[in-house]
Write a structure and sequence with these properties.
Keywords: Membrane, Nitrate assimilation, Transmembrane, Transmembrane helix. The chain is mostly helical. 83% of the residues lie in helices and 0% in strands. The longest helix has 38 residues.
C-alpha cells in the first residue's frame, strides 16, 4: 500500500510540475509572445495555488471515502487539463494559465496519501512511513529532467501525452490494488463541521506555519529555481532544469530521513535544525556567491533542510493527531504548504523586476525561517510535548 501510494504521489507531482521547466523556455523562444519575469512567475505558480487550496476539500473527502477511491479519481481527472494543454493551450499564455489552473488538481494527491498511509502504521512508525510517501514529491524531478528534453526533441506535446498515459495506467492500477486500512471508520459529521473542528486544533495552525516554510520553500525553489538560475547566473534552460532536479533529489531523499529521525529523536529537534540551516543558507545565497562553490552548497543545504523539515512536520501531525482527523488536518496543512510555495515566486519576480536583484527575496526567506525556528522551540514544543511524552512512556512499557 505504501509503495503504490508513493508511486501515485510521484506520478501526480510529475504532472503538477509540467509547466515549471517550460516557463524560462517560453520566455526565451517567444512561443507565447513577449513575457516578463512576473509573467513567468505567475505561469509556474498557478498550478501550485490550486493544488494547495484543493487539498483542504480533498483531505476531508479522503477521511470520508478513503484513499482507495480518491487516488484513482484524482489521477484520472488530472488527465483532462494535461490533454487540454497539449492540444489547445501551448500557443496561448491565457489558455496556458487556464490549463495550469486545473492542472493544480494533481497537487491535491498529497492530502489523499498522508491519511491513507498513516492508517496502515502504528504511531512509532508513522514518521518514517509518511516520510517515505512524501518522497513522492520527487515527481517534480522527473518533470525537471524530462520535460524540456522531450519538448525540444520529440515535439511540444510529447511530455504532456506521456504523462497523461502514465496517469491513466496508474488510475487503473490504483483502483485494482489499493485497499484502505482495516478498521478505518468514516466520519459521520458534515464536511463543513469537520473542517471547522480541525481548523480549531492548535496543532493545525502551528503545523500550517511549519509546513508553509518547509514545504513551501521546497515548492518555491522547485518551480522558480530554473528561472532564477537562468536570469541570475546565465544558465541555459536545460542546465537550470538539471540543477533544479539536483535540488529536488536532495530534498526528496531527506524527507523520509526527516521522518525517521523524528521517530528516533522527536520531530521538534529535527524541525529546529532544519530551519536553522535555512536561515544560514538563504543568507549566504542572498550575497550572490559563486554558483559552483558556495552557492551550490547553500542551495543543497537548504534542499536537505526543507526536505527533512517537511518530513518532520507530518511526523509531528501523525504522532499528535487523532487518526480519524489526519486527512482533514493534512488538507489544511498541505494547503498552507502549497500557499507557502505560491507566494515566493511572485515575490521574487516582483523584487527582481524592481531591483534587478533577488537578494531581498532571499533575505526575506532567511528572516521567515528564523521566526519559524523561534515558533518551533516555544509554542510548538509546548503543544506537542504532552502527547509525545505519553507515547514515549507507552512504548517503553513492557508488553
Amino acid at each position: 500500500m505504501l509503495a503504490v501510494a508513493t508511486i501515485g504521489f510521484a506520478v501526480n507531482f510529475w504532472a503538477w510540475a509540467l509547466i515549471s521547466p517550460l516557463g524560462p523556455l517560453f520566455r526565451q523562444n517567444g512561443a507565447l509572445g513577449t513575457l516578463s519575469e512576473s509573467d513567468v512567475a505567475l505561469l509556474v505558480a498557478v498550478p501550485v495555488i490550486v493544488g494547495s487550496l484543493g487539498r483542504i476539500v480533498v483531505g476531508a473527502l479522503t477521511d470520508k471515502v478513503g484513499g482507495r477511491v480518491m487516488f484513482p479519481i484524482v489521477s484520472a481527472v488530472t488527465i483532462v487539463p494535461i490533454l487540454f494543454i497539449a492540444f489547445v493551450a501551448l500557443d496561448s499564455y491565457a489558455l496556458l494559465l487556464v490549463g495550469g489552473f486545473f492542472l493544480g488538481i494533481a497537487g491535491t494527491t498529497f492530502a489523499v496519501g498522508v491519511p491513507f498511509v498513516n492508517a496502515w502504521f502504528p504511531p512509532e512508525r508513522r514518521g518514517l512511513a509518511v516520510g517515505v510517501f512524501g518522497a513522492g514529491m520527487g515527481g517534480t524531478a522527473i518533470s525537471a529532467l524530462t520535460t524540456v528534453k522531450l519538448y525540444d526533441g520529440l515535439g511540444s506535446r510529447t511530455p504532456f501525452l506521456i504523462t497523461a498515459g502514465v496517469l491513466a495506467v496508474y488510475a487503473v492500477v490504483a483502483w485494482s490494488v489499493l485497499r484502505d486500512a482495516p478498521g478505518r471508520t468514516a466520519p459521520t459529521t458534515s464536511l463543513v463541521k469537520r473542517l471547522s473542528s480541525n481548523a480549531r486544533l492548535p496543532i493545525t495552525w502551528q503545523a500550517c506555519v511549519l509546513y508553509a516554510v518547509a514545504f513551501g520553500g521546497y515548492v518555491a525553489f522547485s518551480v522558480y529555481l530554473p528561472a532564477y538560475l537562468k536570469t541570475d547566473y546565465g544558465l541555459t534552460p536545460a542546465d537550470a532544469a538539471n540543477r533544479m532536479a539536483g535540488f529536488v533529489v536532495v530534498a526528496v531523499i531527506m524527507r523520509p530521513i526527516g521522518g525517521w529521525l523524528s521517530d528516533k529523536f522527536g520531530p521538534i529537534p529535527v524541525l529546529a535544525a532544519g530551519y536553522a540551516v535555512v536561515v544560514a543558507g538563504a543568507g549566504v545565497a542572498a550575497t550572490h556567491p559563486l554558483l559552483e562553490h558556495i552557492g551550490t552548497i547553500a542551495f543543497l543545504g537548504m534542499a536537505a533542510a526543507l526536505g527533512s523539515g517537511s518530513g518532520a512536520t507530518f511526523a509531528l501531525i501523525a504522532k499528535v493527531t487523532d487518526p480519524a482527523r489526519v486527512g482533514g488536518v493534512t488538507g489544511l496543512v498541505g494547503a498552507a504548504g502549497g500557499l507557502g510555495g505560491f507566494v515566493p515566486p511572485l515575490v521574487m519576480g516582483y523584487v527582481y523586476g524592481r531591483t534587478d536583484s533577488y537578494a531581498i527575496g532571499l533575505w526575506l526567506l532567511s528572516a521567515t525561517a528564523a521566526l519559524t525556528l523561534l515558533l518551533t522551540l516555544t509554542i510548538v514544543r509546548k503543544t506537542a510535548q504532552p502527547t509525545l511524552q505519553e507515547q514515549r512512556q507507552t512504548s517503553e512499557e513492557p508488553a
